[in-house]
């Protein structure tokens, strides 16, 4: 019986501050045939997002089962190599999912991410959702620059890396000010936890310093949807309520909440500091990422009081997330009505 085939586009990905350049990247769907990760000079952009695209020879392909890749980490000046069997069954299940609104496939890309110190991520990616299907660690490898750059065989490894770095002011400035990232930075980014989002609309009693429930005759706000973009390179904009059920997910990088009160529509956008949110999750989850937990939003839009917390009902444990860990802006009927004191995002940053 012929293998099921799918419309598959392939891309590489690398963090904006830590560009990479592929020697080769192949996703084998049988022993002799593979989808190639197209070249980009270099890969540098939003982690987890497709950064390259090319026309495919065929409309549909079997799901790849093996990744074979060698690439250059530009900021380190080191080549890495990885050959890894992929979770084909999981990827087939994901590529079989369709958008309930239009019936189109929910996923169309396989994205391969290359991180400092040999980290390799594999995502299935679509406009409304992406899923992390693998996080691996590659080995350092020696590559002859004559093979890597056959059209310019006299260029040294250092010269090649310096060229990329010096032509990207962001990369150069970050290296000069901060150097290479901590060894465990991307391992922390790629951690996943078992939690759900829980919006709680209540009144804030300033005098007593406590939250109180709405009265029976009061008009309660109604949550419309939540959107997320996470540090593990995934996102979810399905608006299907799935984020308010328990699921595996990374640490939040950006969140959007929309609700309405009568005819008034509100949207709140949160941006999270990576160091502080990593610290909060490490402290709360300790070594047990599978503990069922809630990410709670306490919301009083009438007086613009907002608090976030991690909560575990079974153990009656709650930890407030410091308001220094995130920035917030709120819109009412598309007009700004509140921003946190530490807000410094560029205009239009909420469009993502």
Structural account:
It is globular, with a radius of gyration of 23 Å. Helix content is 14%, strand content 40%. The chain is mostly beta strands and 352 residues long. The protein has helices at residues 88-95, 145-148, 157-166, 169-178, 185-190, 274-285; strands at residues 5-6, 9-13, 20-28, 34-36, 61-62, 66-73, 78-85, 109-114, 119-125, 130-137, 139-141, 193-201, 203-205, 210-212, 222-230, 235-236, 247-249, 252-261, 264-272, 293-300, 305-312, 317-321, 326-332, 335-339. The strands form six sheets. Strands 16-15-18-19-23-24 form a six-stranded antiparallel sheet. The protein has a five-stranded antiparallel sheet with strand order 4-3-6-7-11, with no helix packed on it. It has a five-stranded mixed sheet with strand order 17-12-20-21-22, with helices on one face.
CA-atom Rg in angstroms: 23 Å
Average pLDDT confidence is: 95
Total beta strand runs:
24
Strand order of the largest sheet: 16-15-18-19-23-24
Please count the helical segments. Answer: 6
> Topology as H/E string?
EEEEEEEHEEEEHHHHEEEEEEEEHEEEEE
Give the end-to-end Cα distance, rounded to a whole number of Å: 42 Å
Q: Largest sheet at a glance? A: 6 strands, antiparallel
């Amino acid at each position: 019986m012929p293998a099921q085939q799918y419309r598959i586009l392939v891309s590489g990905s690398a963090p904006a501050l830590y560009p990479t350049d592929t020697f080769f990247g192949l996703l084998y769907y049988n022993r002799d045939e593979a989808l190639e990760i197209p070249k980009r000079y270099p890969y540098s952009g939003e982690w987890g997002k497709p950064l390259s695209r090319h026309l495919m020879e065929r409309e549909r392909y079997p799901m790849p089962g093996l990744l074979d890749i060698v690439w250059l980490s530009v900021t380190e000046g080191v080549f890495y190599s990885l050959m890894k069997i992929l979770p084909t069954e999981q990827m087939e299940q994901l590529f079989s999912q369709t958008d309930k609104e239009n019936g189109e496939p929910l996923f169309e890309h396989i994205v391969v991410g290359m991180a400092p110190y040999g980290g390799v991520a594999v995502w299935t990616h679509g406009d409304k959702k992406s899923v992390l299907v693998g996080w691996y660690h590659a080995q350092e490898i020696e590559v002859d620059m004559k093979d890597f750059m056959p059209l310019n065989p006299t260029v040294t490894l250092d010269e090649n890396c310096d060229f990329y770095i010096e032509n990207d002011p962001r990369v150069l400035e970050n290296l000069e000010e901060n150097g290479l990232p901590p060894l465990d930075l991307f391992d922390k980014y790629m951690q996943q936890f078992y939690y759900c989002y829980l919006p709680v609309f209540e009144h804030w009693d300033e005098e007593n310093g406590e939250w109180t429930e709405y009265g029976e005759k009061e008009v309660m706000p109604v949550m419309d949807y939540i959107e997320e973009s996470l540090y593990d390179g995934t996102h979810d904009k399905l608006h299907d309520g799935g984020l308010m059920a328990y699921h595996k997910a990374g640490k939040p990088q950006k969140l959007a909440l929309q609700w309405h009160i009568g005819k008034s529509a509100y949207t709140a956008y949160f941006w999270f500091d990576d160091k502080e949110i990593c610290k909060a999750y490490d402290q709360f989850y300790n070594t047990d990422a599978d503990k069922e937990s809630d990410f709670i939003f306490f919301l009083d839009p009438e007086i613009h009081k907002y608090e976030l917390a991690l909560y575990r009902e079974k153990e009656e444990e709650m930890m407030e997330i410091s308001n220094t860990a995130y920035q917030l802006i709120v819109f009412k009927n598309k007009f700004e009505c509140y921003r946190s004191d530490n807000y410094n995002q560029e205009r239009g940053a909420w469009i993502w």
